[in-house]
Design a protein that fits this description.
Elements (H helix, E strand, L loop, with lengths): L2 E5 L2 E2 L2 E2 L2 H11 L3 E8 L16 E6 L8 H11 L3 E6 L2 H14 L2 E6 L1 E3 L2 E6 L4 E6 L4 E5 L14 E6 L26 E5 L9 H11 L2 E4 L1 H6 L20 E5 L5 H7 L4 E6 L12 E4 L2 H15 L1
Parallel strand pairs: 1-4, 1-6, 4-5, 5-12, 6-11, 7-11, 13-14, 13-15, 15-16, 16-17
Antiparallel strand pairs: 2-3, 8-9, 9-10
Helix pairs in contact: 2-3, 4-7
The structure holds flavin-adenine dinucleotide.
C-alpha cells in the first residue's frame, strides 16, 4: 500500500494546528499516514502524539530545522521520507518545500488543494478565476490550503520513532533575524483585517490595528497600500504577488477588489467589505458589505466589538 506522508507544519518551533487538517486530507487519500516532524528538539512532536488518523510519526531531528532553509530542509526531509504521496501545508514556506521535494524526486506537485474526492484533487488556477481537478497516477507532492479540512480529533496512538536527519545536508542557515514585530502575520491568522489605498495614509492603519487587537486578528494590506507607503511593509501584502490567505474572516477596508487582490483572499470563509463606493468590485465577493467610508464605519465596528468582547 502507498504511504501518505504528512510534513508537519511548524511555526515558531511548535507544531501548527493546521497539521491536524493535513492528517484528515491524508486520510482522504485512503493510504496509511506517516507524519514527519522536522525539529531540533524531539519534544516538539508530543503535541500530535495522540492525534487520530496517524499510523506513524517520524521525528526528524536536526539543528537545521531551527530556521527554514529551502535547500537544507529539502535534502534532509528527502533523505528520511519514504516514497509515497507527500502532503504539506500551503503556507508560503511549505509550498516552496513542496515544489523542491517534487523536483528532487521527479514527481508532480499540486499546490493549494482545496478539495479531495475519490483521490481527485481540486485547486484554484488563473488567480482563482477557475478551479481544476486532477487525478494522480503515481507519487506526488500536494500542498493543502489552511482552514479547508476539519482537524483530526484526538484519540490515536501512533508509533513514534526519532531519526537523525542531518546526514546529507551541506549548507544550513544558522540564525534568522526577523524584523521585530509583535503583530500576528497574515499567514498565521484566522481573522484578518486589511486596508487598501482608501485608508488615505499609513497612520490611519492604527484604526485597523485597534480592531485587530480586539479580535485577535492580523492586519493585511493591498499592494497599492504597500507600494504607496513605506511604513506598510510588503510582508502585509495579500494577493497574487503577496500572500495567499484563507482565514475564517477577512475584512477588507478601502480595498477596491482588484482580481490580483482577490487571488490571495477570495477563498476566505467569510468576507466583509467596507467601501464608500457601492460599485466597488469587492462587494461582488463579500458575504457582508458596508457602503460607507471607513471614517464612519470603523468607530461603530470598534465600539460594538469592544462591547461584545
Ligand atoms: C502583476 C500584478 C500583480 C499584482 N498583485 C497584487 C497583489 O498581490 N495584491 C494586491 O492587493 N494588488 C495587486 N496588484 C494591484 C491591483 O491590480 C490593484 O491595483 C490593487 O489591489 C488596488 O489596491 P486598492 O484596492 O487598495 O486601491 P484602489 O484600487 O485605489 O482602491 C481603493 C478603494 O478604496 C475606496 N475608498 C477610498 N476612500 C475610502 C474611504 N474613506 N472609506 C472607504 N473606502 C474608501 C475606493 O472606493 C476604492 O474602492 C497587482 C497588479 C499587477 C499588475
Amino acid at each position: 500500500m502507498t504511504d501518505t506522508i504528512v510534513i508537519a507544519e511548524l511555526n515558531k518551533g511548535k507544531v501548527h494546528p493546521t497539521t491536524g487538517e493535513l492528517v484528515v486530507a491524508a486520510g482522504m487519500m485512503g493510504n496509511s499516514c506517516t507524519v514527519i516532524v522536522p525539529c531540533s528538539d524531539s519534544s516538539v512532536a508530543d503535541s500530535i502524539s495522540s492525534t487520530s488518523g496517524i499510523d506513524k510519526i517520524i521525528v526528524a531531528k536536526s539543528d537545521i530545522f531551527s530556521s527554514y532553509d529551502a535547500s537544507g530542509w529539502c535534502s534532509a526531509i528527502d533523505s528520511i521520507s519514504p516514497n509515497g504521496i507527500i502532503i504539506t501545508s500551503a503556507s508560503p514556506q511549505s509550498k516552496d518545500l513542496a515544489a523542491r521535494l517534487a523536483a528532487r524526486r521527479k514527481i508532480s506537485v499540486v499546490q493549494d488543494v482545496v478539495a479531495i474526492e475519490n483521490g481527485n484533487l481540486t485547486s484554484p488556477i488563473y488567480s482563482g478565476k477557475a478551479m481544476q481537478t486532477v487525478s494522480l497516477n503515481g507519487d506526488a507532492v500536494i500542498s493543502i490550503r489552511q482552514n479547508v479540512f476539519d482537524s483530526a480529533p484526538q484519540g490515536g496512538s501512533p508509533e513514534v520513532s526519532v531519526m537523525d536527519a542531518s546526514g546529507n545536508v551541506t549548507t544550513a542557515v544558522k540564525e534568522l533575524i526577523s524584523r521585530a514585530s509583535e503583530r500576528l502575520d497574515v499567514s498565521e491568522a484566522n481573522i484578518i483585517i486589511s486596508g487598501g489605498r482608501g485608508m488615505g495614509s499609513p497612520e490611519n492603519f492604527s484604526h485597523l490595528e485597534k480592531i485587530a487587537d480586539t479580535l485577535g486578528a492580523a492586519v493585511g494590506a493591498s499592494r497599492a497600500a504597500v507600494d504607496t507607503w513605506d511604513d506598510i511593509p510588503h510582508s502585509m501584502q495579500v494577493g497574487q504577488t503577496g500572500k495567499t490567505v484563507n482565514p475564517n474572516l477577512y475584512i477588507a477596508v478601502g480595498i477596491s477588489g482588484a482580481i490580483q487582490h482577490l487571488a490571495g483572499m477570495r477563498s476566505s470563509k467569510y468576507i466583509v467589505a467596507i467601501n464608500k463606493d457601492p460599485d466597488a468590485p469587492i462587494f461582488q465577493h463579500a458575504d457582508y458589505g458596508i457602503v460607507a467610508s471607513w471614517e464612519e464605519a470603523l468607530p461603530v465596528l470598534q465600539s460594538s466589538l469592544s462591547a461584545m468582547m
